[in-house]
Every structure is written in structure tokens, then in C-alpha cells.
């Protein structure tokens, strides 16, 4: 029986993941591994039991792992390292989230409190659908994307891998945000965004490259 969860990353985002896991009532034991160990021994109510480099020591048949790192590129890299060690990953969905049974949520993703994933949408691996954000019908969210709190995506939106959609932003129906791009907080996306760009404003316009 799987009843233990090891979270990689004892940060503020890690607290959110642990709280979500606890609310789901799937795990009797929730612990952290972090680079700050042994200096850091706790993260809110949960114990930091070891260093993040010691993952192999905690692999067991009753244990799942979750990578709680907000930075998309680092989360992807650490997830690949755990995958190479044959770790089993948890997918965390807060009980207050509204996730259509006709949607798909990839392994290792986090759906936070009061978030919505609507019908026929697909969420990739290791994605974050943060607090009170919404992904409407027929959207495609790539691997290791982060949809920040209060961001809203209309129907048929595509967000490609490792892009970041900032807090309180909005994307109208049918738009695509390319790979490794950043949409600034409070922006309104009215047209497609190419890969490797930073955009901001209403309407959102290029402000920099994201290399």
C-alpha cells in the first residue's frame, strides 16, 4: 500500500504541495528532502528528513515522490533525475479543485486549491495549475508549465512546455503560448506568443527574450 510521500523542495511552494497532499488524505506520512538539510529541519508542519541528493535512500514500494520546485527548468531537470532512479511520482489534486473527469492530468502535476481544469483539457507532466487559476475546455498545457494563481485561460488555449503564465493574467480563446515563454503578471494575451519570449501588458507585447 502506498501511503508515504517524499516532497523534493522544502520551500513555500513545497508547503502548498504538502498541504494539498494532506488535504487529499492519501498519505499517512509526508516528509521533505531539501538542499538546505541539515540546517533546515522543518517546513511548516512537516519534517525535512534528508538532503535532496539522497533520494535513492528513500525509494520504497510504499513511497511516492513529488518535485515541488517552482522554477520550471529546475523542476524538469530534477524530475528527470528522479525518473532515472525509477522513482514513482505522485500527482496532487486539492479536493477543492474542480477537475473534469473528461480531462487528463499528467504524472507529477499539482492542481491547487480552487483551481479549475475543464472538459477535454490535457495537463502535461510536472505542471502547476496554481491557486484559483482556471484552464477552460479543450486546452493543452505542456510539460512543466506553471499557471500562476488567478490566471485564466479561455477555451482551446495551448501553452507549450516550460512556459510560465503570470499571476492574474488572462489568455483569450484559441491562443498559443510557445515553449519557454513568460507572460507577465496581469497581462492580457490576445494573440499567439512565440517561443522564448517575455511578454507583458494589456494587450501583451514583447519586452525581452527568454533564453
Please tell me about this protein's structure.
Residues 4-81 form the PglD N-terminal domain. Belongs to the transferase hexapeptide repeat family. By secondary structure, this protein is mainly beta. It has two domains: 3-90, Rossmann fold (3-Layer(aba) Sandwich), CATH 3.40.50; 93-203, Hexapeptide repeat proteins (UDP N-Acetylglucosamine Acyltransferase, domain 1), CATH 2.160.10. It has helices spanning 12-24, 72-84, and strands at residues 4-8, 29-33, 42-43, 46-50, 63-67, 92-93, 98-99, 104-105, 110-111, 116-117, 122-123, 128-129, 134-135, 140-141, 146-147, 152-153, 158-159, 164-165, 170-171, 176-177, 182-183, 188-189, 197-200, 205-209. β23 and β24 form a beta hairpin.
Question: Briefly, what is this?
Answer:
By secondary structure, this protein is mainly beta. Helices cover 12% and strands 31% of the residues. An 8-stranded mixed beta sheet has the order 6-9-12-15-18-21-23-24, covered by helices on one side. The chain has a 6-stranded parallel beta sheet with strand order 7-10-13-16-19-22, with no helix packed on it.
